[in-house]
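Following up on my earlier message about iron/sulfur cluster. Here are the inputs again, as you asked, copied directly from the submission form:
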Amino acid sequence: MIQSRVEARDVADWKTALRQGVRDLRELLDRLGLEPEALLDPADPRSEFPLRVPLAFVARMRRGDPHDPLLRQVLATMAERDDPDGALDVVGDGAAMALPGVLRKYAGRALLIATGSCAIHCRYCFRRHFDYAEGQLSATRLDAALAALHADRSISEVILSGGDPLVLDTPKLERLTERLASIAHLRRLRIHTRLPIVLPERVDAALARWLRALPWPSVMVVHANHPRELDAAVATALRTVAASGVTVLNQAVLLAGVNDRLEVLTELSERLFEVGVLPYYLHQLDRVRGTGRFAVPDAQARTLHAGLRACLPGYLVPRLVREVAGAPSKLPLL
Ligand SMILES: *Cc1c(COP(=O)(O)O)cnc(C)c1O
Ligand code: SF4
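Thanks, got it. Here's what our run produced:
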């Protein structure tokens, strides 16, 4: 009885936290003690990819700092409107859509777009132009997707992605993995999510129980770009995931003005390891329209990566990669 009361409170907690995320620019700036004039590039309050950021993430931003690296990740700016070099689908997701909600790019792996929504809207996101109404796995499409996974015995790993699959509530995730469990040739499950970083409340008792009960060795790939994203609440959430028997990896995106300095990337790796996470990928930005202000030149990316190799043990050096449409894997930047 006591346990179910605790879990009822957990459920309300993360969903409330998700709902309470900031969507209003004025409110965000007020919370940070910033005047709109303090922003170098004026903010755009009416973007087609609207502002959205959980309070737990806002709380880690430095008050009064218009250049804060966490703020920079979420602030819509007027520069996004004037970015002629960006494309709409640079990573080839349109072509890789095997059927609605299922992306097949790489051998052995199928990626499910479990939902189109996210708790946070990252300005550099390559999915910001993706047609989720077309692409996401609605209830009616799930049957077809599962039938395709059943039929293709070459698929050994299913990746739950999106959007962010942990925006779905736990009973829904349980129903999904119960259905996946009937596919005998699946050997691994992977979850791509930013929620343990931006909304650590999501890692509650029910989620941990779901993770522990998964019938496959499982991997969670989280997404943090700056060491300051990993505060005490996030550390607790990540340790809970790891204690559920799930391998936890991190992917970051190399972002100008956020983490394009050697000290920041080194500290990100060090801090990840402290909270039980290994660095996996450092992505060179996918140049979709509206993301130009985050681009880091390849030469600088290579220099930073060489710097990481020179000062960290090999297991703390993420693979520096770029996604190229049609390539058989993410490509190392050599
Ligand atoms: C990135 C990606 C994967 C996973 O690639 P890994 O190199 O295994 O991490 C799988 N499917 C799609 C469609 C992807 O974009
Ligand atoms: S959480 Fe991931 S998918 Fe969602 S907006 Fe951010 S980078 Fe994109």
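One observation from looking it over: The mean pLDDT is 93. Hope that helps, and feel free to reply on this thread.
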